[in-house]
Amino acid sequence: MSSEKSKPTVQTTGHAWDGDLQEFNNPLPTWWLWTFYATVVFAIIYWVLYPAWPVGGSYTKGMMNDITYTTADGKTKTTHWNTRALLLKEMQIAREEQAEYLKDINALSFEQIRSKPEKSAFANSMAKVLFADNCAACHQSGGDGVMGRYPNLLDDAWLWGGSFDKIQETIANGRTGSMPGFKASLSTKQISDVSDYVLSLSGNEADAAAVKRGQAIFSGQGGCAACHGADAKGQDFMGSANLTDKIWTIADVSGAETAAAKKEAVMNVVKNGKTRVMPAWKGRLSATEIKILTYYVHQLGGGK
Ligand code: HEC
Ligand code: HEC
Q1: How is the chain split into domains, by residue range?
Q2: CA distance to 163, 279, 282, 293, per residue, from 173 (Å)
Q3: Is 106 within 8 Å of 291 (Cβ atoms)?
Q4: What does the pLDDT read at residue 191?
Q5: Which residues contact 291 (CB under 8 A, 6 or more apart)?
Q6: Site residues for ligand 1, CB cut-off 6 Å
Q7: CA of 185 to the centre of ligand 2 (A)
Q8: Per-residue DSSP letter, 162
């Protein structure tokens, strides 16, 4: 066996201990060595430029330019370069930019905001936060509400009107929608008939004779027409629902599967009535915040 030949030729340091104990000499690869030198040079430059070494009770401050920034409470400070001051400076710039945007939002009309993509995007992103903090508890984070309790703001049916002005008024001053209960003033038969009439208005299945009797109650003894209008389309100054569309806010007709369940849903509202309160936000939110929310809600529901 020629084991001598197959042995790799390696360099040794040339020393021998205990007669035959030798030490290999494997030089470091050049790339490694240069990388190492580069890190040393980098570190030295870094020490000179940036805060680095502790000295006594203090530290070397570095040669970077000083940073001057203004805090949220308006105090101006100058300090040697450091990452904390850098962050405070960036926060100052963001605050100033936001203040600038808010000033624009205040000055522009809703239509002007809508025609400027950048302002519109700013208003929407700020509104999302405001909506999540103040409105989502009732109207849900997506704005789709809770049937019977909190109206859906995504559909284009508005109890109180869907223009910018009406929505702004709703949010600022709040609204109380009040549908009286009729179980004391109408018989169950009458409530049943008027409910058939209501269902027929949006194309639901209903008994023709009952619809006819119901119509008379609607515009006569029931007094329904006084609030919902003779055409039953609702009146937005009192938030009375439009009964002719397929959009329901209290009686869950669209969610009911059978004709009997739909009838039951309407009869319950007519029997028991319903009063719901949308709280006022004036005083709790600034005028600018209410304006931003108005812009957002208007567009959620394909405002008018
Ligand atoms: C405590 C629950 C609650 C909170 C919080 C709340 N709302 Fe309402 N909101 C209601 C109720 C209830 C109504 C329906 C009133 C009615 O029946 O007429 C309503 C109605 C509305 C309407 C009118 C919808 C229509 O069809 O005309 C708008 C717009 C609206 N809310 C926006 C908001 C915004 C924006 C916020 C957050 C600033 C908010 N709401 C917070 C309960 C709430
Ligand atoms: C004093 C005014 C008033 C009268 C009278 C009145 N309503 Fe209403 N009605 C309302 C208001 C306001 C609402 C919405 C309530 C709310 O949003 O909380 C409503 C809601 C309803 C709803 C629920 C609609 C939905 O989308 O879920 C039905 C159904 C209804 N009314 C039917 C009737 C019938 C039938 C009569 C007559 C027997 C009648 N109303 C009389 C004011 C009135």
Answers
A1: 1-64, 67-107, 127-300
A2: 15, 7, 6, 14
A3: yes
A4: 98
A5: 105, 106, 110, 168
A6: 134-135, 137-139, 150-151, 153, 158-160, 167, 170-171, 175, 177, 239, 276-279, 281, 293, 297
A7: 15
A8: -
DSSP structure class, residue 164: H
Q: Say which ligand is closest to the CA of 180.
A: 2
CA-to-CA dists, residue 152 to 127, 141, 249, angstroms: 17, 11, 7
pLDDT tens digits, 3-55: 455 556 778 888 888 888 888 888 889 999 999 999 999 999 999 999 999 99
Candidates 3.40.1260.20, 2.40.50.140, 1.10.760.10, 1.20.58.2190; correct CATH number of 127-300?
1.10.760.10
Residue bearing tokens 């919902």: 228
Measured distance CA(14)–CA(150) in Å, rounded: 90
Vertex 171 angle, CA 168 and 177, to 5°: 115
The rounded distance, in Å, linking the Cα atoms of 261 and 128 is 37
